[in-house]
Write a structure and sequence with these properties.
The protein is of the alpha/beta class. 32% of the residues lie in helices and 23% in strands. Strands 1, 2, 8, 9, 10, 11, 17 and 18 form an eight-stranded mixed β-sheet that branches. A hairpin with a 2-residue loop joins strand 9 and strand 10. Helix 3 packs antiparallel against helix 4 and helix 5 crosses helix 12. The structure holds flavin-adenine dinucleotide (FAD). The site of flavin-adenine dinucleotide has 46 residues, from helix 2, strand 12, strand 16 and helix 12.
C-alpha cells in the first residue's frame, strides 16, 4: 500500500506512472550537506519552492522520501482549478479587503503560473487550457454557483454560467442541470509536470535527493538539522512540504490536516465515436456534489474518473466500484469499456476549506491543505514559500501564517469521516433528483 513513502517508494500502478518517461536522477543524500534552505517533500509545493528559491539565487537542498511526484502530485486528476472553494466576497470579508483581495488574486491566477512554468521550461505534459467546468448536480447548488460567477465577473474574470443544454453539449452527459465555465482552468498530465518541475529546479541549481526521508528535525544553535538515513542537511531555513503525507515527521502539523483518499480509474482508449461525444472540446470537470466526481479525457482518449472513497488507500478493485458506477451513470456508453488503471492517493483537507501556511519555528514554514485544488495552488504556494524564505515579509504571503492547530480527536477521524460520508452521499443523491 502506498501510504508511507519511506516504506513503499514505488509509484502506484497509475496511468500516469505507466506513460511518463523517467524523471531526472535524484540520488539519495550522502553525508552532511550545508544549505541555506532545505525543502522537505518533492510534490508540487516542494518542487516549486525549490525551483523559485534556487532561481532567486539560494543554495537549496530538497529531500524526498521516495521520488519527486510520488505523492498526490504524481497521482491526481491534473485539473487546474482557479480559485478556492470559498467565493471572493467571503475571502475579503474574512481576511479584510486588502489581504482578502491578494488571496483572491493568488488563487485565481494560480493556473497562470503553471502555464508560464510549463512554457518557460518546455515541460512536455500535454498542458491545455480549454477551461474548467463546474457541473451543478441539483437545484440546491445553483444559487451558490451563480453567485460565484457574479463575484468573479465583478473582478474581471470571464466566467460564464451554462444552462442545461450547454453543459450537456460540453460534457456529453445530461446528468447535470447547469454549470459554470471558468476559462482560466485547464489540464495537464500531473506526473509529467512534477518531473518537469524537478528538472527545472535542478537546472536552477537546486540539489534534489530522492529516497531520502527526513526522519527528524532538530534545532542546533541558529541552524536546523534535518536527518535522513544517509546524511543530514544543515540549513538556516526549512520548508515542510509533505502535506497529506506528513505523518510522524511533524505530528502537530499532521494532526492539523485531514488526510482523505481519492480514487481514480482510467478506461482503455475509447473509440473515435465516443471521444466525439464525451468531453468533445477537451474541458475538464468536477461537480458540485459534496462527494464530488471529477473527470477528464486524456489526449489518447482514455476517460479518467475520480472521486472519494475508503478513508485509507486500498488496492482491491471492489474499493473502486462506486467510481466505475459513477462513470457508467454519467456515460452509459462506457459500460463496455475496459478499465485499464485503478489508483489512489491522499488529499489534505482543512475544516474551513482554506489552505494553510504554518510557521513552525524560526525560519521554518509549511504549506498545504489545498482541499483537492493543489495542482495549481501548490505550485503558487511553493513560490510564495520560497519568497518568504528569501526574506520577503510574512505579510507578503497569500495567507497569514498560523501555528498548526491539531484537530481534536484526530485519531478518531476514520469513524467520523465514515458517518460524514454516508450523510453527504444521502444529501447528494437527494439533491440530484431535484431538478430532473
Ligand atoms: C487522486 C487524486 C486526485 C486529485 N485531483 C486533483 C485535481 O484534479 N486537481 C487539483 O488541483 N488537485 C487534485 N488533487 C490534489 C493535488 O494532487 C494535491 O493538492 C497536490 O498534489 C499537493 O501537492 P504537495 O506537493 O503539497 O503534496 P504531495 O504531492 O503529496 O507531496 C508530498 C511529498 O512529500 C513526501 N514526503 C512525505 N514525508 C516525507 C519525509 N519525511 N521526508 C521527505 N519527503 C517526504 C512524499 O513522498 C510526497 O512526495 C488530487 C489528489 C489526489 C490524491
Amino acid at each position: 500500500m502506498s501510504t508511507d513513502p519511506s516504506k513503499h517508494s514505488e509509484l502506484p500502478d497509475s496511468l500516469w506512472a505507466a506513460t511518463t518517461p523517467s524523471g531526472p536522477s535524484c540520488p539519495p543524500l550522502s553525508g552532511d550537506r550545508c544549505a541555506e534552505l532545505c525543502v522537505i517533500g518533492g510534490g508540487f509545493t516542494g518542487l516549486s519552492a525549490a525551483y523559485h528559491a534556487a532561481e532567486a539565487g539560494a543554495d537549496v537542498v530538497l529531500v524526498e522520501a521516495a521520488e519527486p511526484g510520488w505523492g498526490a502530485a504524481g497521482r491526481n486528476g491534473g485539473q487546474l482549478i482557479p480559485g478556492l472553494k470559498l467565493n471572493p466576497d467571503d475571502l475579503e470579508r474574512r481576511f479584510g479587503a486588502e489581504r482578502g483581495r491578494r488571496l483572491v488574486d493568488f488563487a485565481g491566477s494560480a493556473p497562470d503560473l503553471v502555464f508560464e512554468l510549463v512554457a518557460k521550461h518546455q515541460i512536455d505534459c500535454g498542458a491545455r487550457r480549454q477551461g474548467w467546468v463546474h457541473a451543478v448536480h441539483g437545484r440546491a447548488a445553483l444559487p451558490q454557483e451563480e453567485e460565484r460567477v457574479r463575484q468573479w465577473q465583478a473582478r474581471g474574470a470571464a466566467l460564464e454560467m451554462l444552462d442545461r443544454d450547454q453543459i450537456a453539449a460540453m460534457l456529453g452527459t445530461d446528468e447535470y442541470i447547469a454549470g459554470m465555465l471558468d476559462p482560466r482552468g485547464g489540464w495537464l498530465q500531473p506526473l509529467a509536470y512534477a518531473r518537469g518541475l524537478a528538472r527545472a529546479a535542478q537546472s536552477a541549481g537546486a540539489s534534489l535527493h530522492g529516497m531520502s526521508p527526513a526522519a527528524q528535525i532538530e534545532r542546533n544553535a541558529d541552524r536546523w538539522k534535518i536527518a535522513t538515513p544517509s546524511g543530514n542537511v544543515i540549513a538556516k531555513q526549512v520548508l515542510i512540504c509533505t502535506n497529506a503525507y506528513t505523518e510522524q515527521l511533524c505530528s502537530r502539523l499532521a494532526r492539523s490536516l485531514i488526510p482523505v483518499t481519492s480514487y481514480q480509474v482510467a478506461t482503455e482508449p475509447l473509440s473515435d465515436e465516443l471521444r466525439a461525444r464525451i468531453l468533445p472540446k477537451g474541458h475538464v470537470s468536477s461537480d458540485t456534489r459534496r462527494l464530488l466526481r471529477y473527470f477528464c479525457m486524456t489526449p489518447e482518449g482514455r476517460l479518467v474518473m475520480g472521486g472519494r472513497g475508503h478513508i485509507r488507500e486500498r488496492e482491491g478493485r471492489e474499493f473502486y466500484a462506486h467510481i466505475v458506477a459513477s462513470m457508467h451513470q454519467l456515460y452509459p456508453e462506457t459500460a463496455g469499456a475496459r478499465i485499464d488503471y485503478y489508483w489512489s492517493g491522499r488529499v489534505a483537507l482543512t475544516l474551513d476549506h482554506l489552505p494553510k501556511i504554518c510557521e513552525l519555528g524560526p525560519g521554518m514554514w509549511s504549506g498545504g491543505g489545498y482541499n483537492g485544488r493543489g495542482v495549481a495552488m501548490a505550485t503558487a504556494m511553493g513560490r510564495s514559500l520560497a519568497e518568504c524564505a528569501g526574506g520577503a515579509s510574512a505579510d507578503s504571503l497569500p495567507l497569514p501564517p498560523t501555528k498548526p492547530r491539531p484537530l481534536p480527536l484526530h485519531g478518531l477521524r476514520g469513524p467520523a469521516i465514515g458517518v460524514a460520508v454516508a450523510w453527504k452521499l444521502l444529501l447528494d443523491t437527494w439533491e440530484s433528483r431535484d431538478g430532473r
